[in-house]
Fold this protein.
Amino acid sequence: MKFNAGRKELSECLKTMVKTVQRTNAVQELRGFLVEADTDEGVVCITASNAEAAIQRKINAKVECDGGCIIDAKALHSIIGIIGGELVCFEKVEEGTVTIQSGSCTYTVQALEAKLYPRPPLLFPDSVAKISGLRSMYAKTSSSVIKNDELQPLSGVHVDIKPDGISVVGANQGAVSVASRRMACGGSLSFTLSKQVFSNLAAVAGDGEIEVGISGSHAMFMKKGVLFCAKRLPGEYVDVDTLISSVKPALTVKTECDELKTALLDICGVATVGNDSSYICLKFSEDAIEISTQNAACGGERTVGCVTIDGEPGKRFHYSVGAMRDALKTVDGSLIMQVDERGYLLVFDRENKYMTVPISQHAVKRKAEAIREKRTKHCAEQKAA
């Protein structure tokens, strides 16, 4: 095996693939990249896989001799990142040894035989849809995914593709985040992938166009030079449309995301000062939203302008810091905020939605009592000193 490839292209390729390789994998071969050179196609094919997903990428190269090997993923990624130069030459000098050279710098690394690599299965979906924007939609919804892997499929990111658009969903026990895009997809598909797998997919796919299809228990993603295969999480995902439609707004207001984001992030910062995080209080008046928090260390209040569209102002509910931060990641631009009599909050823009439930009054009261106790104790300690 001998080939020359562009260092920048190779580095970018490995960067999007390295997270797929599990450093703790019991199978030594799967802790590395399978690197194969093909003189007929003039490409180098790099494969990475684990129990949940596999990715294969091809880059153009000047191939002098066919062949392949397995190189430790972390070592190869690090070497290509620091070696410098425009072109990198790979050469298998003997069985088990590969040299990686660029300019006056040469690395000699151990390699395993390519035939030992447990190759992922080649799957062919019956039909495909075309989508785009995966990376942006993942960024908007991933923080809402429940952090308990045992609660499948809520521990994953859900994708719902229709002929006229795509929705990416993250959910937990108290919130749902939905990022949507209107586009001609050319098909209907629905599946859920683990959060880690979707993160790797987002890095590879970016926001460009990619084809997706289903083959048995796997989802396939394809674009020029890239093939990504992932196991789908089993089970039926939560009925998001029913959850969101359960919010029967008692109040509807319009505001701007930039102003709301500045105020909410300031108050969230105050809420997390000290050892305990406090809650965020939203009070809706005729032309403003009052945002406040109070904990044992300090408190804060900000006001954001709004326009009441429907309903009676005066609603006041408490929400978690995490829910408020997740909401800000999901929506953009001009926002509509709706709250029902229970305090269920729905925030949405033209494409994206975020729904969350309030903190119970009992929990709010308990938190206030804890704050008073801490302050009383602190005052007593200061007097004693």
In short: The chain is about 25% helix and 40% strand. Residues 245 and 306 are 23 Å apart (CA to CA).
